[in-house]
Amino acid sequence: MATYLSLGQVGFEMVVPIVLGILLDRWLGTVPWLFVAGVVLGFVGGLIHLVRLVNKLNSKDAPKTPKDST
Q1: Is this prediction's pTM over 0.85?
Q2: pLDDT tens digits for range 25-70
Q3: How far is Cα 70 from Cα 62, in angstroms, rounded to an integer?
Q4: How much is the pLDDT for 69?
Q5: Close Cβ partners of 44 (under 8 Å, ≥ 6 residues apart)
Q6: Which one of 23, 41, 46, 53 is separated from 66 by 20 to 30 angstroms, measured CA to CA?
């Protein structure tokens, strides 16, 4: 269940900056620049979180091997 919540959080992190960019663009009249910044920020932030999540899951699933003492 925690894995699915983490994936949902990644999606949330990607969407929120886009929505904020759209709203700020309309309010400040800077269309489309804050939207573009939100897309880039959301994509990069979500991708970083996704890579960290996958690395964490892979390290848990990796078989434990004893160290060579030779």
Answers
A1: no
A2: 999 999 899 999 999 999 999 999 999 998 988 887 777 766 655 5
A3: 23
A4: 59
A5: none
A6: 53
Q: Give the whole-angstrom CA distance, residue 22 versus residue 37.
A: 10
Handedness of CA 8, 13, 16, 22 (dihedral sign): negative
* Residue 42: half-sphere exposure toward Cβ, Cα within 13 Å: 19
DSSP helix/strand/coil, 62: coil
Distance CA 35, CA 24 (A): 8
Q: Which residues contact 53 (CB under 8 A, 6 or more apart)?
A: 3, 6, 7, 10
Q: Supply angle C-alpha 13, 41, 12, rounded to 5.
A: 10
What is the rounded CA–CA span in Å between residue 11 and residue 35?
A: 17
Residue 57 backbone zone (phi > 0: left; psi -120 to 50: alpha; other: beta): alpha
